[in-house]
Amino acid sequence: MTETPPAFDEMNDQGGTRAPYAGIARYLEAAGEAALEKKRLDAEVLFRRIGITFAVYGEGGDPERLIPFDIIPRVLGRGEWDRLARGLEQRVRALNAFLADVYGPGEIIKAGKIPGPLVLENELYCKHMRGFVPARGVYTHIAGIDLVRTSADDFYVLEDNCRTPSGVSYMLENREAMLRLFPDLCATHRLLPVSDYPEELLETLKSIAPANCAGDPTVVVLTPGPYNSAYYEHSFLADEMGVELVEGPDLFVEDDIVFMKTTAGPQRVDVIYRRIDDDYLDPEVFLPDSTLGVAGLMRAYRAGNVSLTNAPGAGIADDKAIYPYVPEMVRFYLHEEPLLANVPTYLCEREDERAYVLDHLHELVVKLTHGSGGYGMLVGPHSTAEQRADFAARIRARPNDYIAQPTLALSTVPTLVDGGIGPRHVDLRPFVLTGREVRIVPGGLTRVALREGSLVVNSSQGGGTKDTWVVEDEPDPSQSQSQSQSRGGF
């Protein structure tokens, strides 16, 4: 079995504790295992009381489960974060430019920078968006960019999420939990706040309202319903923004205008934050038997009478077969060098790269190009000969469906586990909002692989989450002024 290289420890390096973690190190040394275990149990009670769950299907029994929350925060320095934020903004600008181009003139294809069939024949390419320009020319208004770290200076983009990225509610609730459980520890750090995300989300949504919108735009969150795995997040965000949470039957289209049914009669809807996949949005255009969407919604959208977030067809920008070309998008559209690097990626549709992948399955991570949630993935160094043989057969049968990447040594952070504190691998999903302007709350959702040695952080695969702190500078133990970020809600 091939071993992955040693992982970068975000808390400690050869010189001792790294500066952003100085206050955490002091706290952990003083607290003791019993006190930490009590805090962990308190956190579990808190999360269970408010019902923060994530549905996991296909395993039998009750699909609702509590997402494990680790009480030891992941900490980034302000300088580290500022460099990341610049790279994130650049990348999302390029992704939006790519979407505008491939649904418009197709200049990047004409220039030979990306193969036309890879885009135009991709099942995620939405032909109904050809020639249509949404409000402000923005296609992916809410992007979740998954990052992994391999050293003090090196972050890599693992994948882009341009359709309906989830997890921001857990980012917000994790911070609220830390403020309640560790008020003194939080007060001794100059934490950059995340609590204004719902306000910034609402401002972003309002800023892309149709040009013919009169007065304050009416915004709704469209959910598939309570059986969706992220329903908690849908209801949470609607509540935090102070807007209606609706399902398909709550809306109807008349004269190419979307209306919401209310006790006071129909009310026009201007912006829909949809958490429904493209195929289910409108039975007139997509799946005819869908009951989750709204008949006529695409007519209203193309008529310029309603805005959809994110735009249908935005998924072509986060397809894993498109991902290797994002650095070239940055150069082509922005005339800049990428600030964030990709993980080297092999496209199994290419004969030479497929041959390499098949010969090195024991070293690589293999993913479905349209996969998500950690499903349909092979982690070569942790796989069996039988699993590798199975994936080799899949790749040979449908090479276009797979990519492969080197097994990176994801950084580790201290995590409370059975027997004390141990290092566990993490990734980071910051959320980028694009409307009239680009907004990024400092931090994001840190996902942690709770099984020792595991590199799979997805909640659907047994991973947990942590609060992500961006700190201004070295913690000051003498600081006594309490930080106030409470939003209520507990």
UniProtKB/TrEMBL annotation:
<dbReference type="InterPro" id="IPR051680">
    <property type="entry name" value="ATP-dep_Glu-Cys_Ligase-2"/>
</dbReference>
<dbReference type="InterPro" id="IPR016450">
    <property type="entry name" value="UCP005522"/>
</dbReference>
<dbReference type="InterPro" id="IPR025841">
    <property type="entry name" value="CP_ATPgrasp_2"/>
</dbReference>
<feature type="region of interest" description="Disordered">
    <location>
        <begin position="457"/>
        <end position="490"/>
    </location>
</feature>
<feature type="domain" description="Circularly permuted ATP-grasp type 2">
    <location>
        <begin position="73"/>
        <end position="449"/>
    </location>
</feature>
<protein>
    <submittedName>
        <fullName>Putative circularly permuted ATP-grasp superfamily protein</fullName>
    </submittedName>
</protein>
<dbReference type="Pfam" id="PF14403">
    <property type="entry name" value="CP_ATPgrasp_2"/>
</dbReference>
<feature type="compositionally biased region" description="Low complexity">
    <location>
        <begin position="478"/>
        <end position="490"/>
    </location>
</feature>
